[in-house]
Amino acid sequence: MAGLSGAHIPDGEFTAVVYRLIRDSRYAEAVQLLGGELQRCPRSRAGLSLLGYCYYRLQEFALAAECYEQLGQLHPELEQYRLYQAQALYKACLYPEATRVAFLLLDNPAYHGRVLRLQAAIKYSEGDLPGAKSLVEQLLSGEGGDDSGGENELDGQVNLGCLLYKEGQYEAACAKFLAALQASGYRPDLSYNLALAYYSSRHYASALKHIADIIEHGIRQHPELGVGMTTEGIDVRSVGNTLVLHQTALVEAFNLKAAIEYQLRNFEVAQETLTDMPPRAEEELDPVTLHNQALMNMDARPTEGFEKLQFLLQQNPFPPETFGNLLLLYCKYEYFDLAADVLAENAHLTYRLLTPYLYDFLDAMITCQTAPEEAFIKLDGLAGMLTEQLRRLTKQVQEARHNRDDEAVKKAVNEYDDTLEKYIPVLMAQAKIYWNLENYAMVEKIFRKSVEFCNDHDVWKLNVAHVLFMQENKYKEAIGFYEPIVKKHYDNILNVSAIVLANLCVSYIITSQNEEAEELMRKIEKEEEQLSYDDPDKKIYHLCIVNLVIGTLYCAKGNYDFGISRVIKSLEPYHKKLGTDTWYYAKRCFLSLLENMSKHMIVLRDSVIQECVQFLEHCELYGRNIPAVIEQPLEEERMHSGKNTVTYESRQLKALIYEIIGWNM
């Protein structure tokens, strides 16, 4: 049938061909044929009806609504077309228009029940939960009449479960969905609803169990959907947004699984989960998948992530989290002007999609750029409010434990954890204001004030360690905070940030604990060797960065002979150790060396200078395709691609060496 047009169809066969295409779910081809036919007979009832049906199946709901609107005008006596128009408008998220059309059918007893259901769905989507609940209860009480689409008890309970979920009553929603699932047998949509309710109540294991059921059924019943093939590197064509794909709930299940893994900080698993879902072209992706792709690949592809979130914000509808996440990411990357612009341009979304806490936090972050003192006061007010909440919740936990009320303990602990996760970013934003001013003593003072709540929080402990390290006279105290972080991951030490390991080694060396430093470095080397054996092509920089930071330490103390030699040796072999991060540390040492040489503050032996030149020649050779700096994702003026390489910068450094020592004469 490929390339079939109306001109090639024998007389009398047109209707049969169109119905065969619809039977085989080849709706796009049917649309092509029907479109041509309607150009000749624009008032054809059969043609418009079939075209509307095909558009609906293709999820082109606005176009389907247009077809049904024309039919309603041509045949006002057939009120089912108004119902179909209202349903298509609802699916297209045109809620006011759908409500207006549906209202015209309320007086017809034949459609009363279906219109009430549609109105309930519209109010639910618009966030009018009391209105939706009132309509659902009307239907459950039998007010919907006995038309062919009559409300049954099961659907009514599911609808009540959805309302309970929206109201934040996740446990009650779980009970409704579980009862419905037990009564109906396996249904992908119900399994997904239950998994979502478990996820929202933090029962991740139960949520993953139901997600696994959905995926297992989907793979077994529809192998043609190609689950997991993209992750395995198999080149497969898009399966499209078919009705079958929608009915399996596979896309929803994979998105929810990715969200759970992301919450559990299994970031690589979360990324892989998104590629496991049935393959679709990027233009076919639903808003939730696009949002999750942007979020989970932000570190690796920030420019692409910002583009996706900005695109989603222009769509109707978009995931409500998009607005807050885009603003937070703008602040993270210090695009405060862009965050302020988005807030100003979308004032109508601010009150609907941002909590008072998030709005106040973003407002303070944006103020940091122009008025850091004012921003600190705003953050301090927010921190004060949150500490009061934390104290109140601590008291609730203690009382619940005293009363041996396990459910109340669990609820209070969850609320405490949520509040603490809000408090930590506020605290860090306050600390960063003074960190940027290099007032490390004040940063330490801010952290000391929060010890009551944060002493077990990894982010807090890590930042306390950093600020103690930066004061250069508190290395022993810094070790006390760095050591537990490293020991926690000692069996998988490469999961620890390289700079944490480097700072701990430097602290050991400065406090004359050289044996501990050497033992830690041996452990890192052993793990790197094992990883290289398992994956020979993978670049691992941990030990290299530790040695670079130690070399930097000696350079900072004026011992350039040893420091520069350590830096040079740390980057061997160059094809595995030379990267943007490692080059950053190396070039800082060389620039410091050149500055002191140009001021005649130090003199290097010729052999060391020759070693430096040879090192830079190696970097020039191996650094052709390695960026010298990672550019900010939204910069309008990009660096020249030939200049943003390690090769280019190493040539510049070599030229400076020649100039300073007079070899150019």
From TrEMBL:
Stretches of the chain forming a coiled coil according to its record: 383-410
Stored InterPro entries: TPR-like_helical_dom_sf, TPR_rpt, TT30
Superkingdom of the source species: Eukaryota
GO molecular function: intraciliary transport particle B binding
Protein localization: Cell projection, Cilium
SUPFAM superfamilies: TPR-like
GO cellular component annotations of the record: axonemal microtubule; intraciliary transport particle B
GO process annotations (BP): intraciliary transport
Major place of residence: other
Keywords: Cell projection, Cilium, Cilium biogenesis/degradation, Coiled coil, Repeat, TPR repeat
Primary role: Required for polyglutamylation of axonemal tubulin. Plays a role in anterograde intraflagellar transport (IFT), the process by which cilia precursors are transported from the base of the cilium to the site of their incorporation at the tip.
Family the UniProt entry places it in: Belongs to the TTC30/dfy-1/fleer family.
Protein name from the UniProt record: Tetratricopeptide repeat protein 30
Organism the protein comes from: Mustela putorius furo
